[in-house]
Design a protein that fits this description.
Strand content: 15-25%
Radius of gyration: 30 Å
Strand order of the largest sheet: 7-14-13-9-10-11-12-8
CATH class of the largest domain: Alpha Beta
Number of strands: 22
CATH superfamily of the largest domain: Phosphoenolpyruvate-binding domains
Oligomer: single chain
Structural class: alpha/beta
Number of domains: 4
Shape: globular
CATH topology of the largest domain: TIM Barrel
Number of helices: 27
CATH architecture of the largest domain: Alpha-Beta Barrel
């Protein structure tokens, strides 16, 4: 059965459409388990019924016609109970429903298992036989496994609207669909999708026609030659390390790329009007499927090699297949794993939004997008890029949602929202030069988080009192290698000079996790609990010392520098970092005779371990800053970049609030300045809570500052204190947000926060 399972999964993975997936499942399952019937019923949300979508054994005319209510029939019972149903005499069960059009009368045995994805029943997988018997436990387990494998493909079809179109083909209209990603840069973007990055997933290559057959054939030949050269180089490089038999495989791969049958199929497809990339992917996937069906183990394993060769050629084909060059106005940039470097090659003023299938709200691209004010959704793993290329979409950067094929009403709604946001931001500009003082006289210092040159002007215009977090790793991404000390001096001096005399808090290099430098890759199974932040700096003092020296040298004539150490989890780490900082300072003063004022040194509280050592940390540093993003992630055991659990990430969680309360209490007792520099500070409701917990220094993105200031100008600190005390007693994060919204229900306040709780 394991071999059958593997073959089925491999075939499903190579299928290019949902109907093909369903046909493979029913055909292969029926054969593998020697059943009389295999059928798949899927839930159609439009009419709340389970629809027969594929069958091998029943009349095919019944597909799309048999529809069962939520608890109707045996299929409805399986779905309602969310567990398998194994019957010897199905026709005698009280829930049995007979459909003459399906011709089920000869079949007695019934086995049905639910298809479940993320706790939601998507359909039911059914086996039937003529003889009266219960299916074996092994058969039931096998069917459950297939159902679990199938669930992802069904969920994707459901989200894209494909399922609705299949179950109601006569409708003829493309249906609106909503995809969820990670909100990474706020705003509303409306436009057409354009491909911006090379995608080597053969199954995701869009079906496109070509305008010039001769050029496409020429490009295909060039791609083949390039791939063959790569294989030759790779083989030569490994020649001394491989046995003659292993080395011979490289010659086999090259011969495969010379195969006249394979080349003829592709060229024939191009001649019929297909683009080279579309033709190549179709032919290769067909051959991969053939290899996977072979009985011989050796030949079956070659399917992976053919797939790899296919990807190599496709990469060359798509080097010139990037639509950036002809980017239209109001374009929504789409890619599998976009990096910020792509923005250097395109006219940013034409960008309405950005969608990246991978990445997080803290990725370099997200940071750049926020600086440029481009609505962005990252981590949109379910977004069908190939299917929706060139289609109208709405990017909701507030919610992390992508709406495809939006209806006229939906488009009108979002246009109104965008206009509303623009008017609000324009109105709040009047607060720029007004100090942030609560109605009962508490001064709240509002700082900005920066990292890009583009941030400088926006930050200065925002009315920020200082820079609470300058991400020094951001300029590192723009280099081909670690920038030299002199190069760093120029970068830091530019920031310090621009904001002088206002303080600039520079965080030392914070890489690792989801922030790997291209020239310093870090591959770990669990990167967020791995080598990152201060750990890298301590392990590479040569990098850390150069950076500290550069910061100190840059501050020579400004004296507005503050240095902050990230990801401190122990006193030993802090002491080690402080020793290196002191060493760099002494070298510059005593050996190079520079006149530099020693800057305040601070530590970040980002991990639970640091929460319980605040009293000791405070004795060793001049200030503390809480990074609520990572702290929330570690406290809740939630990877905020993982779409499966990202919905559980919420800094309003009472446990996070309790930790923030404890941090402030310990810091106050130690008479140590403590600030917030996470996303919670940039949320108007979050800012109220933080003020209530005692924090008087909040740092945020420049775009959030005016809204936070407007909120705090209207809410007395004593009220904020009462709200914070009551919020900690509430059991859930969403309940905390709803409570705050209810208590701050005022038209002037609602407009500042309603997007975050809708």
């Amino acid at each position: 059965m394991l071999a059958s399972l593997r073959n089925i999964i491999e075939e499903v993975n190579s299928a290019r459409s949902l109907p093909e997936v369903l046909e493979i499942i029913v055909r292969e399952l029926k054969g593998a388990l020697h059943a009389g019937v295999c059928s798949i019923y899927l839930f159609d949300r439009t009419d709340q019924r389970y629809v027969l979508m594929a069958t091998d054994g029943l009349r095919r005319q019944a597909i799309g016609k048999i529809r069962l209510g939520m608890r109707e029939g045996l299929v409805g019972l399986v779905a309602a109970k969310e567990e398998p149903l194994n019957l010897q005499n199905a026709d005698k069960h009280p829930n049995f429903v007979y459909f003459p059009e399906a011709d089920e009368s000869p079949f007695h045995s019934f086995l049905g298992v639910p298809i479940i994805h993320h706790r939601k029943v998507l359909g039911v997988l059914v086996l039937q036989q003529t003889n009266e018997r219960r299916f074996a436990q092994e058969e039931e387990t096998f069917l459950v496994t297939i159902g679990a494998q199938l669930s992802g493909a069904i969920a994707h079809a459901d989200e894209t609207g494909v399922l609705s179109r299949l179950s109601a083909p006569r409708q003829g209209k493309s249906q609106e669909a909503i995809f969820q990603g990670i909100a990474s840069s706020p705003g509303i973007g409306i436009g057409k999708t354009v491909l911006s990055s090379v995608n080597t997933d053969l199954s995701q290559v869009p079906e496109r026609n070509c305008a010039n057959v001769h050029m496409e054939v020429s490009s295909f030949n060039v791609a083949l030659e390039s791939a063959k050269h790569d294989m030759w180089k790779l083989g030569q490089g490994l020649k001394d390390k491989l046995s003659p038999e292993e080395f011979a495989l490289f010659e086999v791969y090259i011969r495969l790329l010379d195969d006249p049958t394979l080349i003829g199929e592709v060229v024939g497809s191009i001649n019929s009007g297909k683009a080279a990339s579309s033709a190549w992917s179709s032919v290769i996937l067909k051959h991969v499927k053939t290899f996977r069906k072979m009985e011989d183990n050796y030949l079956r394993e070659r399917a992976a090699d053919v797939l790899d060769l296919g990807k190599r050629v496709l990469a060359y084909l798509q080097q010139d297949d990037v639509t950036v060059r002809t980017m239209p106005k109001h374009a929504v940039l789409v890619g599998e794993d976009l990096s910020a470097t792509i923005l250097a090659d395109i006219p940013v003023d034409r960008l309405a939004g950005i969608i990246s299938l991978k990445g997080s709200s803290n990725s370099h691209l997200a940071i750049v997008a926020r600086a440029l004010g481009i609505p962005t959704v990252m981590g949109a793993t379910t977004f069908p890029m190939a299917e929706l290329l060139g289609k109208d979409v709405i990017v909701d950067g507030f919610k992390g949602a992508i709406i495809t094929r939006p209806s006229r009403a939906r488009r009108k709604h979002y246009l109104a929202l965008r206009r509303e946001e623009e008017l609000l931001d324009r109105d709040l500009e009047r607060l720029r030069d007004i100090p942030c003082i609560t109605p009962d006289g508490e001064h709240i210092a509002l700082f900005v988080n920066t990292g890009l040159r583009q941030d400088v002007m926006r930050s200065l215009k925002s009315g920020a009192e200082a820079v609470g977090l300058y991400r020094t790793e951001v300029p590192f991404f723009a280099h081909l290698g670690f920038p030299t000390e002199d190069e760093q001096v120029l970068i830091y001096k530019e920031q310090l000079h621009a904001f002088a005399p206002r303080k600039v808090t520079m965080r030392t290099l914070d890489i690792g996790g989801d922030k790997a430098l291209p020239y310093f890759p870090i591959e770990e199974e669990n990167p967020f609990l791995g080598w990152r932040g201060i750990r890298i700096s301590l392990d590479h003092p040569e990098i850390f010392l150069v950076q500290i020296r550069a910061m100190l040298r840059a501050s020579e004539n400004n004296s507005n520098l503050k240095i902050m150490l990230p990801m401190i989890s122990s006193i030993g780490e802090l002491d080690g970092a402080l020793q290196l900082v002191n060493r760099a300072y002494e070298e510059l003063i005593n050996e190079e005779h520079l006149c530099i004022e020693k800057p305040p040194i601070g530590a970040m509280i980002e991990v639970p371990a640091a929460v319980y050592q605040v009293d000791q940390l405070a004795k060793r540093v001049d200030f503390l800053s809480v990074g609520t993003n990572d702290l929330t992630q570690y406290l809740l055991a939630v990877d905020r970049n993982n779409p499966r659990v990202a919905g559980l990430y919420n800094s309003f969680h009472p446990s996070v609030l309790s930790a923030l309360h404890l941090i402030h209490e310990q810091a106050s007792n130690a008479e140590c300045e403590v600030s917030i520099c996470g996303e919670l500070a940039g949320d108007p409701l979050g800012a109220v809570l933080l003020v209530g917990l005692g924090y008087r220094h909040l740092s945020m993105s420049a775009g959030c500052l005016s809204r936070v200031k407007s909120m705090l100008l209207q809410v007395p600190a004593r009220k904020a204190r009462d709200l914070a005390e009551r919020s900690i007693q509430i059991t859930g994060a969403n309940e905390v947000m709803q409570f705050l919204a209810g208590e701050l229900k005022n038209p002037d306040l609602i407009k500042l926060y309603h997007r975050s709780i809708e």
